[in-house]
Amino acid sequence: MNLVIQSLAPLAAEHHKPLTALSRGSILTVIDPHAVRIDNADVAQRADLDVYCATHSLDYAFVEAGRRLTDFGLVAMDMDSTLITIECVDEIADFCGLKAEVAAITEAAMRGEIKDFNESLTRRVALLKGLDASALDKVYEERLRLSPGAERMLAGAKAAGLKTLLVSGGFTFFTEKLQARLNLDFTRANTLEIVDGKLTGRVLGEIVNADVKARTLREACDKLGIEPSRAIAMGDGSNDLKMMAAAGLSVAFRAKPVVREAASVAFNHVGLDGLLRLF
Asked: Is 39 a catalytic residue?
């Protein structure tokens, strides 16, 4: 296995020797100012690397030697707190004066403390009843920001021939705008019911929960004629776990502990473009 170490700030050379020794690896190669690769690293050293990297705000990942980004055909992403920095439902609720109440439900759901995602989404959306739909435009224009490295990651994935899927337990209002803005290939999300310019507090159709996310990833792979093992899935919350388990490589991005523990790779510090440095 190769070990890839990354840092949000330039990675100081003083880390090279300790990391090589801790990983029991051989050759260290500088990938760019923010990352190094150590060949022939020992996966059994994960516990020591956890401590060192956490202390110095570094991200590390074991990657099979010779693995290339072109080995994959799809990158699937969660939206809220993954591709973008906000939870859209929380920000919408702010326009009702209910952000704290809704955000508490969102946080519990993402940590996996609320097992029924459908129930948690239904509860949150019900609190939005009567809100003017113009609040959605305000959230998009004033509050929605792409996560660090998002555009670079997408450009690198597309250059390597990968297709892109944005699959979200959030809302089509935002996924559709992001699809057009970022030229994404596939999207799936929930549709907020709007009547006479106001939110009704209901979601139309099937709710995009953990099972639907995993199914959507498999369906996208079917359309592309590839096995799910050739998909990369990126997410941050417990409702991403089944999608991530279905993929050949899973990336926990600034994620909840339950997701970090289950993922192939965890990025706690670097941006989404950290994906490109793995290969």
From this structure: no
